[in-house]
Specification:
- The structure holds two protein chains of two kinds.
- Chain A is of the alpha+beta class.
- Chain A is built from 22 helices and 23 strands.
- In chain A, the strands form two sheets. In chain A, strands 2-3-9-6-8-7 form a six-stranded mixed β-barrel. A six-stranded mixed β-barrel of chain A has the order 14-16-21-18-20-19.
- In chain A, strand 19 and strand 20 form a beta hairpin.
- The radius of gyration of chain A is 34 Å and the shape is elongated.
- Chain B has a single domain, classed as P-loop containing nucleotide triphosphate hydrolases (Rossmann fold).
- Helices cover 33% and strands 28% of the residues of chain B.
- Chain B is built from seven helices and eleven strands.
- In chain B, helix 6 links the parallel strand 8 and strand 9.
- The longest helix of chain B is centred in the C-terminal third of the chain and has 18 residues.
- Classes of the chains: A alpha+beta, B alpha/beta.
- At the A-B interface, helix 1 and helix 8 of A face helix 1, helix 2, strand 7 and helix 3 of B.
Chain lengths: 837, 236
């Protein structure tokens, strides 16, 4: 009771007198930054995930080549999941004498669970969202299908054995995918009508998709239940997290960035709490010695200060949570027109993490300083030079490191990443420690000239930094963390923007015959259309590797051919040929086949992913069936392909020699400005047999998501910058305490305020510059690890920051030092001396 | 002299400290006794070992060898926790630099030993004693809002609140001007007399030392008696 009352009084008075400001600020900062970052990113991610879920029309999909057990679907409702169904099959659609191959999709009323089906009033016109389902007896047809069949809304078409009324022009379905290969125009019908068409009989190539939405945990539970019953040959469970598309990748990287930024914010907060806790402890050496002298036992002292730390932590958490929420809310409100954020949702996880961060940081980072505090002997009342009897850098690092590791693990939920980052951090700290000593040794020579402000500054640095390199390192780490976030943001945003440069093709053309090619080129030139390269394409069945037959019965020619093809054997594949290596492709093994000589085996280049999955090596002979012909080629190169670009890419590229007996069809793409969109139908009218694929909507969606993610990343950058600046302020404030005694003495001895001020500013300028330089080097090391291991991005050095970081470091730290110094020197000598007591 | 009337008994007390040059003996074997209610001044030059001896007698530090009994309790055999308990029950302190807790008010500083000792109504006790030192009007001020003299009066009040059997004062007037020194001296000796407390006073000030019943001189770690009528028990 006594301890509680005393702890409360100490807490109350110290808080009121501003003595707890720094440690409180550090905890408030940690909680506020973690809460605002996590809550914002959680809300944003939810919005992005919802948005992304639209691309698979659900949160998760079960794809199957056969209808699945009805019980599987009914079981889903027990897990509070919503379900929808789609059956798709390629089938001829007839209109009088005209016929066209179509991707017939029969969906139930619940489809789509996420996203919208869009309809347009005119062929290739702007799509308008609809919540309607396809009525029985009717179909909604893609403009391309209408174009091929020469029909319009109100006409009838035949699918299998049944006849349907075309009641709408289908613009888009949410899960259409990105592939432009062999994508047949979609015909949407009601699932109840599919039986009457009889197109799904034995031998048909129907595919079944079951859509699921619900809470992530419910989906996980359901999948856990379902997984043992799935057959990998037949079933495939996918969710947006498995999405390998440009959108999926952008979002995955954004999430990684948020995680990284939040982890760094936690580390920043941890550094500030460590600094503040050390200061708190040192300021309480005397009171502890007094209490012990007056009869307080160790356990009494321990209880008093642990309770006080609890009060501080509690207040810090409450204030931090309020501020964090307000910051986040303010930003969300400010950005709500530009960034789609799930505003109405409250998430407990960020609050939990923020509170956990506050408690863990406050307690674990305080343990060592508190152990020092508890060990202060009562004899200090007689001998001020006696301080703590606990002095173990190992203990200090063990507790601080343990806290950081625990937080990273809890926050990321990934032991491996946390371990890698932590191990990297230890290497970094040790390297910084070594660098600090080298730099100070160099500085000793520089500062050994005549006595002046610079010499005084170097002398102080040498004395203090040698004894406490931790301060310099903490400055360096703070600046480095800011640099990492800044550079990562720049690199990420640049990469995203590069993915969709201005003029990205928004229309793809397929099935262009050799005879149409020249005419199309001329037609585009006449109409001022910028088109891309023409790629020859042939459909081939991959049947053997080195004469070893492969399974070929699995064929699935849905809209996701590109992705599917990479995952299986014996599929039909799109073959291209040429001697020029496509942009965005890099040969990583073997040599590109532009120097083929007559008599050598026909060369083939394979994409690295498919080579890995199927187990194809350089020198293997691959056999394809193209039509009724057999083509054999030898693998002479393996390519790395950038799938992020929205350009056609191929798993297999042959030498043209292999295809000389085949007539090619071509694909190409072009960009048409938004204001010319209405010209598309007349533009393509002379080439009615060419398949037109409109990816404008997709590109807009992708661009929108990238813009949103970039905006969010900007916000996080600003927040981390603010957090980092506050940490720097806390560090400077803490170090000013240590300088107080010296300032008072110098002042008392009559040294001019200007001289003292200059020497202190110089000291901070040197520390900031050195820390900035160290941070720039450490930044490169961290970025290398992050970009190559986690973000899978190409790494390059950032030389500009080698100059920027020391300069900004010197200026910012110098200014902060100047401000703190100005505040102290504005006190009169008496007051200054009294502050020391 | 019966054992019961002795407040401090020391026998061959030695203090050694480790230095870079090896072990240094800063107190030569010291043996002396102090009776209950007696006031003893330890005088000597700076660095002579006065404060070291005070620290040992008060149980703030451990002897390297030798025995110290405080009010019959063997300090030399006690661990830090037991010594803390003993200090809380029987010892009061006054220091040159006042040693007040800066974040507690004058009244709260005075209450502190009573709270630690678990005495009932520490606030009432503090209010009573702060009146005795004439600082009731400054009860809710923090130490840095008080003058040096006022701070030392608060420290004296704090020292007496638990009615200690023995009071250790280390240069109690060392940081004060002469007017304040006089006030503090008078207060210290008055309260000491009223409460019949044993006083061990370390000082440079001969005038202050002369107010004590006995004076011991410390020189280079050797203690000698200054008052001829008492037995000298120091050094080899």
């Amino acid at each position: 009771m006594m301890a509680l009352s005393l702890a409360w009084r100490l807490f109350k008075h110290e808080a009121r007198r501003g003595e707890l400001t720094i440690i409180l600020l550090a905890i408030v900062l940690s909680v506020a930054s973690v809460l605002s970052l996590s809550l914002f990113s959680e809300r944003l991610q939810q919005a992005l995930t919802d948005r992304s879920a639209e691309f698979i029309a659900a949160d998760s999909q079960l794809r199957s080549r056969n209808p699945v057990d009805e019980n599987w679907i009914s079981e889903a409702s027990k897990y509070n999941l919503n379900t929808a169904f789609q059956l798709s099959a390629r089938s001829m659609v007839f209109a009088g004498d005209e016929l066209a191959l179509s991707d017939v999709k029969a969906v139930n009323e619940a489809y789509p669970l996420k996203g919208k089906v869009t309809l347009s009033d005119i062929p290739f016109g702007e799509g308008i969202d609809t919540d309607l389902s396809v009525p029985l007896g009717e179909v909604w047809a893609d403009a391309r299908l209408l174009q091929s069949l020469g029909v319009s809304v109100g006409d009838k078409v035949e699918v299998g054995e049944a006849e349907f009324l075309v009641s709408q022009i289908l613009s888009e379905i949410p899960d259409a995918g990105f592939s432009v290969f062999n994508t047949d125009p979609v015909l949407l019908m009601n699932a109840k009508d599919i039986a009457s068409t009889q197109i799904t009989g034995p031998g048909s190539r129907a595919n079944y998709k079951y859509y699921f939405t619900g809470e992530a945990s419910d989906l996980d539970d359901y999948y856990d239940w379902l997984r043992p019953q799935l057959n990998r040959e037949i079933h495939r469970w996918t969710s947006i997290a498995d999405d390998d598309s440009p959108i999926g990748n952008s979002i995955a990287r954004a999430e990684e960035f948020f995680l990284l930024a939040s982890l760094l914010a936690i580390v920043l907060a941890a550094v500030s709490i460590a600094v503040a806790a050390q200061r708190f402890s040192q300021r309480h050496f005397d009171p502890v010695a007094i209490m012990k002298t007056l009869g307080a036992t160790k356990s009494t002292v321990r209880t008093i200060y642990l309770i006080q730390i609890c009060f501080i932590t509690l207040l810090g958490i409450v204030v931090g949570a309020i501020i964090g929420y307000l910051i986040q809310q303010g930003v969300v409100v400010a950005l709500q027109d530009r960034v789609e954020v799930a505003l109405n949702t409250w998430y407990w996880r960020p609050l939990g993490i923020a509170v956990f961060t506050g408690v863990t940081c406050a307690l674990l980072f305080s343990i060592y300083p508190l152990l020092q505090l508890f060990s202060v002997p009562p004899l200090r009342v007689l001998r001020k030079d006696i301080s703590s009897t606990v002095s173990s850098k190992f203990l200090q690092f063990a507790f601080s490191g343990g806290a950081v590791f625990l937080l990273m693990w809890v926050y990321s939920g990934n032991l491996k990443i946390s371990s890698i980052l932590f191990a990297g951090g230890i290497v970094l700290v040790l390297s910084l420690l070594a660098m600090t000593h080298v730099l100070i040794a160099v500085g000793r020579k520089l500062g050994s000239g005549s006595m002046g402000a610079w010499t005084l500054a170097w002398a102080r640095i040498r004395r203090r930094a040698m004894g406490n390199s931790v301060q310099l390192i903490s400055f360096a780490i703070t600046i480095m963390l800011l640099l990492v976030v800044l550079v990562m943001r720049n690199d990420l945003v640049k990469q995203w923007r590069d993915q969709l440069p201005e003029g990205t093709p928004n229309y793809f053309l397929a099935n262009i015959t050799e005879t149409q090619k020249d005419g199309l080129v001329e037609h585009f030139a006449n109409n001022n259309i910028q088109y891309e390269k023409f790629y020859p394409v042939a459909r081939g069945r991959f049947v053997a590797i080195n004469e070893e037959k492969l399974r070929t019965e699995i064929t699935k020619e849905d809209e996701e051919t590109a992705n599917e093809g990479r995952q299986g054997l014996g599929r039909e594949a799109n073959l291209s040929w040429g001697t020029e290596l496509q942009s965005g492709n890099v040969v990583i093994e073997g040599t590109w086949h532009d120097n083929w000589q007559e008599g050598e085996p026909i060369p083939l280049s394979i994409e690295e992913g498919v080579a890995d999955r199927i187990g194809i090596d350089l020198g293997d002979e691959l056999t394809f069936n193209i039509g009724s012909e057999v083509v054999k080629a030898q693998v002479t190169s393996v390519r790395e392909v950038n799938w992020q670009t929205l350009q056609p890419n191929f798993f297999f590229v042959l030498h043209p020699k292999a295809m000389e007996n085949f007539s090619a069809t071509y694909i190409t793409s072009f960009h048409l400005e938004q204001d010319r969109k209405n010209e598309i139908a007349p533009l393509m009218a002379p080439f009615a047999s060419v398949t037109l694929f409109d990816v404008d909507a997709r590109i807009d969606q992708l661009r929108e998501i990238i813009d949103q993610v970039s905006m969010a990343v900007e916000f996080i950058l600003i927040l981390v910058l603010v957090a980092g600046s506050l940490v720097l302020i806390a560090q400077v404030q803490a170090s000013m305490d240590e300088r107080l005694q010296e300032l008072a003495i110098l002042r008392t001895l009559g040294l001019k305020g200007t001289s003292i001020r200059f020497s202190v500013i110089n000291e901070f300028v040197i520390i900031g510059g050195v820390a900035g330089l160290m941070a720039a080097f450490a930044n490169e090391f961290s970025l290398y690890l992050l970009q190559t291991n986690i973000f899978q991005m190409p790494f390059s050095l950032h030389f500009e920051y080698w100059a920027i970081a020391p300069t900004i470091g010197a200026i910012v730290v110098g200014l902060l030092g100047a401000f703190s110094c100005y505040r102290l020197l504005s006190l009169n000598t008496g007051h200054l001396l009294r502050k020391m007591v | 002299m019966s054992q019961a009337s002795l407040m401090i008994e020391t026998k061959d007390v030695i203090k050694r400290v480790s230095t870079n040059e090896g072990e240094l003996q800063i107190l030569q074997p010291i043996s002396f006794n102090v009776k209950s209610g007696e006031s003893v001044a330890i005088v000597g030059a700076s660095g002579s070992g006065k404060s070291t001896l005070l620290g040992l007698l008060a149980g703030l530090d451990e002897v390297s060898s030798g025995d110290i009994n405080l009010d019959g309790e063997p300090l030399h055999k006690m661990d830090e926790e037991s010594r803390a308990r003993l200090r809380g029950e029987k010892v009061g302190f006054i220091f040159q630099s006042f040693m007040l807790v800066q974040s507690l008010t004058a009244l709260e500083n005075i209450m502190l030993p009573a709270e630690i000792a678990g005495l009932p109504n520490p606030k009432k006790l503090a209010e009573k004693i702060i009146e005795q030192v004439g600082l009731e009007h400054r009860a809710h001020h923090f130490p840095n809002q008080l003058s040096g003299g006022e701070q030392q009066r608060v420290a004296i009040a704090r020292a007496f609140i638990t009615k200690p059997k023995i009071l250790f004062a280390d240069e109690p007037t060392g940081n004060l001007d002469s007017a304040n020194s006089k006030k503090v001296e008078d207060l210290l000796f008055d309260l000491n007399k009223d409460s019949d407390t044993t006083l061990i006073l370390v000082t440079h000030d001969n005038q202050l030392a002369s107010k004590c019943d006995r004076q011991l001189r410390m020189s280079a770690g050797v203690l000698s008696e200054q008052t001829p009528h008492l037995k000298v028990v120091s050094g080899e």
